[in-house]
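Hi R.,

Here's the input for the tryptophan complex you asked about:
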Amino acid sequence: MSRELWSSRTGFILAAAGSAVGLGNIWKFPYLAGKFGGGAFLLAYLILVFTIVKVVMLSEIAIGRAANKNAVGAFASLHNRRWKIVGYMGVVACFMVLSFYSVVAGWTIYYTVEMVSGSLSGLQPDALTGKFEEFIADPSLPVIYHGIFMLMVIAIVIRGIKGGIEKVSTLLMPALFIIIIALILRGFMLDGAMKGLEFYLVPDWSQLGDFDLWSAALGQAFFSLSLGMGTMLTYGSYLDKKENLPNTSFQVAFIDTAVAFLAGLLVFPAVFSFGFDNTAGPGLTFIILPAVFNQMFGGQLFGILFFILLFFAALTSAISILEVMTSYWSEEKGVCRKKSAVIFGLLTFFMGVACSYSLGIWADVTLSSILGINIDLEVFNLGVFDFLDYVSSNILLPLGGLLILIFAGWIKPKRIMDEITNNGKVDFYWKNAFIIMTKYISPIAIGYLLLNSIGII
Ligand code: TRP
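And here is the predicted structure with tryptophan in place:
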């Protein structure tokens, strides 16, 4: 059976950027930056993305295109069956990520509805915080929105890559960009905005010695660029053989990083202006932005547009995650696309319900409590939502990335280099740097930070 391809290079860039740009940029990046001291986190993040993580991106896309297969099949067809484990790990990580991702995506629908109804307008920051906390802890409302979101993701994935994914991305990405710029300009005019900018842009150098900051920045880089679990591999497999991989992958990384950077510019001036706590955590974007909209002329309209676009950004990302699971099952096991998308979608939905409950009625359920033991390690004491987030971003994705680098740098270096250079036809000016990074520097750095995340160092 011949596989579909993207209709053009721009089609791939938009779809890959659509996968990369999502809640990771606008919801997760600002709250992590807030938690880890602002400027220092931003700097660590930028350094990691443009050195260590960039070569993972190029390697992963090249593996996908070389094999022209899904995440599991790719490793088997390029080398041997044992390497399938990397693909399986990716499928498991996808399941974990999508289950909490879809819950947060459901929040964007709820906030769109609330903006339309006007029920947030005029509320003071404290009241907005209360409203957010009450909503996420509710046993039914967030689950309903999460379910609606999952249904949409399943419906689009069933239609396949061109009909579904490409079209959605093409229109909405540029729109999101424009509205973020407009909101940033308004945020700059708030009283005390400068303090927020300073927090976000001027690093406190002493914090760069904190390994937890670097581990968090690394996990976030993998999460935001959709790396380490087969998303870019699967999308790369639908890419035409003529395309220039180094340029294409750089453009995707650049767009993604630009949006994350802008999200920080949007959030921090307001955080400081309204006197919020910058370490507020996952609610940061959802609480701060309605406060900004309340201060703006036409704020309600901007608010509606913003949450709709954030919803679409989450949708294009979620599609790419379900696509990894679906393409694996349908290509490797011959299950039809529709059945595969529906079953994985449902499994993810149920896990997501547990994630949502862990923010309310199941707040006390942790590994420690389930096993009935008391262990002082962070992973043992997280609720379902935070547990899945931590294990996937800080452990599984970097581990997947590490194995991808070993594959590209040590197992099949020639095959991957031929793929990157289109058999010598593309002029790959940082070829030597790529080889050194892929073989030595990136795997060592990632391995080191991984050991830190697991708690060994
Ligand atoms: N990158 C997306 C975001 O920032 C989420 C995402 C899509 C993802 N595919 C992924 C995260 C693969 C990890 C791995 O919102």
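One thing worth noting: The domain at 9-453 is CATH 1.20.1740.10 (Amino acid/polyamine transporter I).

Cheers,
M.
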